Automatic annotation (TrEMBL):
SUPFAM superfamilies: Winged helix' DNA-binding domain (SSF46785). InterPro entries: Tscrpt_reg_PadR_N (IPR005149), WH-like_DNA-bd_sf (IPR036388), WH_DNA-bd_sf (IPR036390). Residues 14-90 form the Transcription regulator PadR N-terminal domain. Signal peptide: none annotated. This is PadR family transcriptional regulator AphA. It comes from the Bacteria. It comes from Flexivirga oryzae.
Length: 176
C-alpha cells in the first residue's frame, strides 16, 4: 500500500511554482519574499523553500532535471514537477479550506497560483462558498446555544463575523 506523503501549505506553494515550469530554489524563493509576487499573499523564507524542495523531491513530487552553472553565485539545481506532483497539486488547488483562519493563507495562495497558471477559479470559489455557508449555520447555532456574556459566546460571535466576511469576499469573487 502506497503512503501519501503529507505536504504543508508552504510545500504546495513551492510545488505550485515548480509546476509552472523548470526552475530552481533561488527563483522560487524570490517569488515568496516581501517584494515578490506571491510574497504579497504569503512569505516563505528561503531556507524553508529549500527544505520544501528537498521534501518534495524525497516524495517524488518534483525531480532534478539539470544544473544551471552560468550566472553569479553557486550552481543551481533545476527541478520540475512530476506527474504525481502535478496530480497532488491540482487536487489541493481545488480543495476548499475548512477553517476561516486558513482563508488568509491557503485560500489566497491557491487563488494566486490558479491565477498565475491561467486556471479558472470558479470551481474553487463555489466549493469554498458551500463549505463556509455550512460552517456559518453551525456557528450561528453555537451563538444561540451559548450563555450570554460567556467567552464561548464571544468566540462564536467572532467566528460568525469572520465567516461572514469570507463569504462576502467569495460572493464578490463569484460575481466579478
Amino acid at each position: 500500500m502506497d503512503t501519501v506523503v503529507a505536504v504543508s501549505t508552504a510545500g504546495f506553494g513551492v510545488l505550485g511554482v515548480v509546476a509552472e515550469g523548470p526552475t530552481h530554489g533561488f527563483a522560487v524563493a524570490a517569488l515568496f519574499t516581501a517584494g515578490g509576487e506571491l510574497g504579497r499573499v504569503w512569505r516563505i523564507p528561503r531556507p524553508v523553500v529549500y527544505r520544501e524542495l528537498s521534501r518534495l523531491t524525497d516524495a517524488a513530487l518534483v525531480q532534478a532535471v539539470g544544473v544551471e552553472t552560468d550566472g553569479p553565485g553557486p550552481d543551481r539545481t533545476i527541478v520540475e514537477v512530476t506527474p504525481e506532483g502535478r496530480d497532488r497539486l491540482h487536487q489541493w488547488l481545488n480543495e476548499p479550506v475548512t477553517r476561516a483562519r486558513d482563508a488568509r493563507s491557503a485560500l489566497l495562495l491557491k487563488l494566486a497560483l490558479l491565477d498565475r497558471s491561467d486556471r479558472d477559479t470558479t470551481q474553487l470559489v463555489a466549493a469554498q462558498r458551500d463549505v463556509f455557508e455550512a460552517r456559518l449555520q453551525e456557528l450561528q447555532s453555537r451563538v444561540s446555544a451559548a450563555e450570554p456574556g460567556s467567552f464561548e459566546r464571544t468566540l462564536a460571535i467572532w467566528r460568525v463575523s469572520s465567516t461572514r466576511a469570507i463569504l462576502d469576499f467569495l460572493e464578490t469573487l463569484a460575481s466579478d
